[in-house]
Design goal:
Low-confidence stretches: 234-264
Radius of gyration: 19 Å
Shape: globular
Distance between the termini: 25 Å
Mean pLDDT: 79
Helix content: 10-25%
Length: about 260
């Protein structure tokens, strides 16, 4: 397995207008890492994902995804949004939603038999092949989430980013979601945003704490007391003087010919 980071942030700052959202962010996520991004509402979690996806550009600093600028690596990333906006009256089947994950890879924009086979395989991977012809609007919250994960997987990504996948499903279905995520290929880097700390503690190896600044910790350092108190009533995590080894002491070489603080 390559030692090159799957995601590398080096001194990244980002703001909306005059409001600073992320400041001096510096961390690595390694290939096949299984991490969760946590923090208070408005702390910058979704912004962090959008920067990884190349949908936003940093004000300063550098971001690399598998060694390249994020906008060059969008095909290597599968994304599961918190919400899928759709017209519940419009007839779109589960398999049609999964096929959307291959847009840009098709010839002349039309799906082929190969596309459909890959879409069916992705649905089978998440346990929803029987729902392939079902209307997406008629599926349960958990089934919809599984279909969206299949859409992210159908392009054979090297990393999958999930924005609060457990936010809109019944508590009883969260175990099924955890099992689904556990069965993802082990070589895929998994980066998930979640507010559910029980889900986080039982699902991931590292936690990325985001509250304007970013700190990375092993999940094993979490305690109930720390979860309750670090971010007030919203979230509490480990003390930030107990860094995970991957968050400190690492060196990001400056790209040749580029001044410090420039953008890719």
């Amino acid at each position: 397995m390559s030692s090159q980071p799957a995601v590398c942030f080096h001194k990244v700052c980002f703001s909306y207008a005059a409001e600073a959202v992320l400041s001096d962010v510096d961390f690595d996520i390694l290939p096949a890492d299984n991490v969760c991004v946590v923090g208070p509402n408005g702390g910058g979690k979704t912004t962090l994902l959008k920067l990884m996806l190349g949908l936003l550009k940093p004000d300063s600093g550098h971001i690399r995804v598998f060694g390249e600028a994020p906008e060059k690596m969008q095909g290597a990333l599968g994304y599961v949004p918190q919400h899928m906006h759709f017209d519940p009256v419009f007839p779109v089947r589960a398999i049609d939603v999964v096929l959307m994950g291959q847009v840009g890879r098709r010839s002349f924009g039309f799906s082929t038999r190969g596309d459909r086979r890959r879409a069916e395989a992705a649905l089978d991977q998440v346990g929803q092949l029987a729902q392939a012809q079902a209307q997406f609007a008629e599926l349960s919250g958990g089934q919809r989430q599984a279909v969206l994960i299949a859409r992210a997987l159908v392009g054979s990504p090297r990393a999958i980013l999930l924005d609060e996948p457990d936010a809109h499903i019944d508590p009883g279905r969260r175990d099924k979601l955890k099992q689904l995520l556990d069965y993802l290929p082990t070589d895929i880097t998994r980066i998930m945003v979640s507010h559910n700390m029980d889900f986080v503690v039982s699902s991931v190896e590292k936690v990325i704490c985001v509250h304007r600044h970013v700190h990375v910790h092993p999940t094993s350092a979490l305690t109930a007391e720390r979860i309750r108190n670090l971010f007030g009533s919203d979230l509490r995590l480990v003390r930030h003087d107990r860094e995970h080894p991957t968050a400190t002491g690492h060196h990001h070489p400056q790209p040749a010919g580029e001044p410090d603080g420039g953008e890719y």
